Amino acid sequence: IEWEGLAVTDLPLLVALHFPIEQLDGSTDGRLAFSVQPDLRIDYDLSITLRSVRILRRGTMQPAQVPDARFAGKGLWDPPTDRLALYEFDYETQAIHVRGAGNADQPALATDPAGDIPLTVRLTGQVKDWVALGREFPDVAEWTRSAMVRIEGAADLSLDFVRRQDEDHLVADVEGRRIRFGLGPAAAEYLCGDSGIPKRLHVDVSHNRQTGKYTQRQLSLSVGGTTLACRGEMVVPTAEVRDGWDWLAAVFHTLEYELAIRTQDLAEIARLRPAERRPSNLLQGHGPAEIGFSITPQDGQSGLLLSVQIPAEPAVDLGPRLMVKPAGQPL
User: What is the value of pTM for the model shown?
Assistant: First the structure.
């Protein structure tokens, strides 16, 4: 089946799957080939181009703009169980290009509403332009603004997400040598990194929706020779606990966390400060350093531990109220 100028809601596969959307504007071109197996499962090969599509999800009042995109995928649909699998897919917009490849045992994308694993996503690809990504997906732009993060440039990424009946598990990697970033308010950023510096973000987290337990197996951010790594777990209270202090008290007694900042050269940290906000006496000298922080539950209370290791050579001046370490004295 081939078509031109067809609405998203009229696409044969989406009509059969009863997707809960209504289309307001835009059109699609594409091709769908399929074959029916003896057990009524359907193999399909779909390619589609989206142009200026706006949709309205059922139960919502705010229309959503779908990025102009090209999509191609091969998979299987099982009508009796509503199980949908994509063994191969390729999705590209102006801002992002992601791909997936799998097999019958491990599809690149699979939905199985009644199964033990309702959703699986495995993909790799590239963010071609982070600024354009924010325009295509406003939630991304809102998240970076709220986190006071500025990101520009391109990055490679991989993502592995599994939703089980009671638990979600996400593993993601972003490699961004070409990324430029800034942390802090737009007019007063306190950290920045130019393109050309190796950068990597690794996330391995899970959330049990029944118990509320959040486990951060690893979250690490590396910029050049400096790495921030943390891991821990806590139990997030139910939605009924809304007061900020009550929520914090409920979380705190379950919180177990470790954080470490390691650098191969203290001078590199100073160079990550914007030039106009880089105090000449903040760090002087070279050498590795490590700062560690941990919090652990202990008999209904919480134990805190802070450690700092700095070799003798560097001089560190954070102000008389924080820390002054002269050169020649290890810490």
Answer: 0.80
